[in-house]
């Protein structure tokens, strides 16, 4: 999928392509801003090529890597992505109460809450089912959505489904 800039149209097309999780997308980009890089990775893009560096041989190699389920990124993007993951990990550590181990995935109680959200339950029903206060349910959802940069409950459920948590 070639793009000049990552915008809402490109994001919608990526979501369409990776829906169902079976498509392995190779993105050819002119440029990617820092937040766009994380979004592209979250959508499941397997390989990224810079447009100015794309040759038929390089494209073939990227497509073959993606078909094998492997990743293929230019070295400068690997560096940027590692920097972003490190920053995310440090921010999680700083905001995690002492004694808890931060993870990039989902905690069991987050999965429990999202399972019930997926079943159509509201905050009050979830709190009753899990014997949590409504505030705790809201805090679990807020922390999860903030940490994983999810926009709303539907996005959180979709993420959990796509990643195999529920």
UniProtKB/TrEMBL annotation:
InterPro entries: Sig_transdc_resp-reg_C-effctor, Tscrpt_reg_LuxR_C, WalR-like. Keywords: DNA-binding, Transcription, Transcription regulation. The lineage of its organism: Bacteria, Bacillati, Actinomycetota, Actinomycetes, Kitasatosporales. This is Response regulator transcription factor. Residues 99-164 form the HTH luxR-type domain. SUPFAM superfamilies: C-terminal effector domain of the bipartite response regulators. PROSITE patterns: HTH_LUXR_1 (PS00622), HTH_LUXR_2 (PS50043). CDD domains: LuxR_C_like (cd06170).
